[in-house]
Amino acid sequence: MWQRSALNRSLSDHPVGKDPQAMRTGQRQNKGMRTRLGCLSHKSDSCSDFTAILPDKPNRALKRLSTEEATRWADSFDVLLSHKYGVAAFRAFLKTEFSEENLEFWLACEEFKKTRSTAKLVSKAHRIFEEFVDVQAPREVNIDFQTREATRKNMQEPSLTCFDQAQGKVHSLMEKDSYPRFLRSKMYLDLLSQSQRRLS
Fold this sequence. Notes:
Structural class: mainly alpha
CATH topology of the domain at 67-197: Regulator of G-protein Signalling 4, domain 2
CATH architecture of the domain at 67-197: Orthogonal Bundle
Protein name: Regulator of G-protein signaling 8
Shape: elongated
Organism: Saimiri boliviensis boliviensis
Subcellular location: Cell membrane; Cell projection, Dendrite; Nucleus; Perikaryon
CATH class of the domain at 67-197: Mainly Alpha
Low-confidence stretches: 1-18, 22-50
Largest sheet: none
Keywords: Cell membrane, Cell projection, Membrane, Nucleus, Signal transduction inhibitor
Helix content: 55-70%
Order of helices and strands: HHHHHHHHHHH
Pfam families: RGS (PF00615)
Number of strands: 0
Mean pLDDT: 78
């Protein structure tokens, strides 16, 4: 949820000069990035330019992304989640499988744990529950009945650990299911190939 907002901002925060020619150039670049991202969101095998999945300025980001770093994503699922470019690539892959809500929920829980204000903690907890956990939630994650009900009870007195059980279930699901497919996907293999070409 918050990561998506950050990604949207990164698509529009490119420095552009004030003269008309520079503005037109910046608009064309911005449109191109949006087109590539939209393409990735639907068909991972139909795009050859994978810089669109990277946060910040894509060309510069890809230059900083070494083949060694991208290769380390295969070491473990947690290594992938600890790398912002890895998260961006995995999110783009999940979009092709229409299951990005699992990652978005996990990220929302990670952000939630940083909450310091008690008032904000309660409101954030209910927002996350209604968005991802409740039955027929807009972006309902795939968890068992017992976990869902246990999380519902936690909403009576929300704490920083109230989503731990549900987050753990979703983490395990992604690790055993989506993550292995991501490592075999054309998207990941092409990203490795592009990083090798750009750094050679």
